[in-house]
Design a protein that fits this description.
Elements (H helix, E strand, L loop, with lengths): L8 E2 L17 H12 L6 H7 L2 E2 L15 E3 L7 E3 L2 H12 L3 E6 L4 H9 L4 E6 L11 E5 L2 E5 L3 E9 L3 E6 L3 E7 H10 L4 E6 L1
Parallel strand pairs: 2-3
Antiparallel strand pairs: 1-9, 3-4, 5-12, 6-9, 6-12, 7-8, 9-10, 10-11
Organism: Enterococcus hirae
Protein name: Peptidase C39-like domain-containing protein
InterPro entries: Papain-like_cys_pep_sf (IPR038765), Peptidase_C39-like (IPR039564), Peptidase_C39_single_dom (IPR039563), UCP032442 (IPR016997)
Length: 205
């Protein structure tokens, strides 16, 4: 039987909460990255990663918005003045931690099958999702003009570590503090796709 035929996988990824003091109210992405790195034995923390992450302002001087593909937009510590960060800066940050032991593999426009394949190989997946795993509608997104062109963003922006799946659910470590939280596959697929299919795995160099 090929490994692709696995009906279920569940990896034991250490849980971290973004609200553990010192809390990062908007720190879901770095908290999820910290969980991913912990799985591979790296000793780091959400706050250490937050210090090393690249940042961009919500508004630039010329009236354009910061680009979440360049850095975290706004205030990671908390409040509404933030729009999160997309996978490229998270991948760059991860690479500085793993150095030459692994190479980071960020993807956009990925599919749920890409996630399943990684899990079957024993690799947890950092993924861009939505707050409380609600399926977003078109009205939840706005288009920002950045220095790099138009970027679609949403205040529902969230991140997690995908730890497993079975016939019905995808399982995630939610940085809001829930380990192996079940999300219906159909819902997760809609959420993941709407957020641009952004995922990150570590690959052995």
């Amino acid at each position: 039987m090929s490994s692709y035929a696995k009906k279920q996988v569940l990896l034991d990824v250490p849980l971290e909460s973004q609200f553990t003091e010192p809390a990062l109210g908007n720190g879901c992405e770095v908290t999820s990255l910290s969980m991913l790195l912990s799985y591979y034995g790296y000793e780091t923390s959400k706050n250490q990663l937050a210090q090393q992450l690249n940042y961009v302002p919500v508004f630039n001087a010329d009236g354009t918005h910061g680009d979440p593909n360049e850095g975290f937009v706004g205030d990671i510590s908390g409040g509404d003045w933030a729009m999160g960060v997309y996978v490229p800066p998270i991948a760059s940050l991860a690479q500085t931690i793993v150095k030459t032991d692994y190479h980071t593999l960020p993807k956009t426009d990925a599919t749920i099958n890409d996630i399943k394949k990684a899990l079957q190989q024993g690799k947890p997946v950092w993924a861009s999702v939505t707050l409380d795993f609600q399926v977003p509608t078109d009205t939840d997104f706005v288009t920002w003009q950045t220095n790099n062109g138009q970027v679609k963003v949403t205040p529902l922006n969230h991140a997690c570590v995908v730890t497993g799946y079975d016939n019905d659910n995808i399982y995630v470590n939610d940085p809001y503090g829930e380990k192996n939280r079940p999300v219906a596959i159909k819902d997760f697929e809609a959420i993941f796709t709407s957020m641009g299919g952004q995922m990150l795995t570590l690959e052995k160099s």
